[in-house]
Amino acid sequence: MATSHLNAQPSFHARSNSLPSSQHPGAELKICKGGDQNETKKINKLAGTTSPVAPVMFRHCQHPFTSQIDEYLNRLRASQSASTSSSIGRQLNCLQDLYDSVDMLLQFPLAQQALAQEQQRKLVEQLLDGSLMLLDVCGTAKDALLQTKECTQELQSVLRRRRGVEGLANEVRKYLTSRKAVRKAICKALKNLKNMENKLRSSSFSNDDETNAVINSLKQVEAVTISVLESLLSFISRPEAESKPSRWSLVSKFMHQKRVICEDEEQKANELENADATLRSLIKSGNMKHVENVQNELQNSEMCIQDLDEGLESFFRRLIKARVTVLNILNC
């Protein structure tokens, strides 16, 4: 499986160096109530919990990492409606911070003891199966970004050589065909994520002791990871929107002016979709005067891909590390 390692720094990734305030290991854990309630309920349902905010609670082995995990979970729950490249980039950054806290949790002796119990082996193996599926989905997303980036760069090269309308049209068709293949692969990955959601819903259990609390914490992390990856995949594979303007002809422009503006703003925020739409328009019109506009859209798309790929790569490494740590705990 191809993996892209990009050296450029992301334009919108602004990771915070300050972690949520830690509590004393013996102190009572504070329940975090941040985040959108509807999205919180969704994540709680996926994680098989009934608590209104599904806090990570260790009644007998309280320590500061749990409050950090709670904080990052709530931040991600509050941003589940992310649909722009910048908001998804922030989600990926927050996911990295979340997995850093998970790594610290997995180094905690009582957490390791909880996961190593023989009677919990089946549940832990389910988590490992889930992490393997997440790695596969990440691989699909990385391949999709890499393929789109390569096609974008090739198309930019063709535009610079000014090969004429016919030569350009052939290259644009290749690009759009590649994008369709990307959407097909992502559609399969999204179905796999949906299956993971269903499995999480059917595997509920209590977190009345530290063993279940550790596993429940990891389930919540898995649930919110699924949601972030769904947002990322949906952004990359945004369906073609050639027929969108026709529906507005049925209603008054005056009555729906604000709604049109909102949709236009959302479309402008998806650099990949904008590049696709601009290329389709160029092919239909055959007007080479729009080449400069096409070049700008392709440049924006390439920068967007680079940023998303870098954030995804960083998260991918942390996901691998978490999986290896759990495997080592089981094999000790």
TL;DR of this structure?
Residues 1-24 have a biased composition (Polar residues). Residues 1-35 are annotated as: Disordered. The protein is mainly α and 332 residues long.
SS content category: mainly alpha
What's the alpha carbon Rg, rounded to whole Å?
22 Å
**Oligomer designation:** single chain
Beta percentage is under 5%
In the residues, how many domains can be counted? 1
Number of strands: 0
Shape: elongated
Largest sheet: none
Q: Any low-confidence stretches, pLDDT <50, length ≥5? A: 1-37, 47-62, 241-267
- Helix count from the secondary structure assignment: 11
Return the average pLDDT rounded to an integer.
Answer: 76
End-to-end separation: 30 Å
Helix content: over 70%
Spell the H/E element sequence.
HHHHHHHHHHH
Walk me through the structure.
- Helix 2 (64-78) runs parallel beside helix 7 (210-236), helix 3 runs antiparallel to helix 7 and helix 4 packs across helix 7 (210-236).
- The chain has helices spanning 37-47, 64-78, 85-106, 109-116, 121-161, 164-201, 210-236, 244-248, 257-268, 271-285, 291-331.
- Residues 1-37, 47-62 and 241-267 have low confidence and may be disordered.
- The protein has one domain (37-236, 260-331).
- With 332 residues, the protein is an all-alpha fold.
- 71% of the residues lie in helices and 0% in strands.
- The protein is elongated, with a radius of gyration of 22 Å.
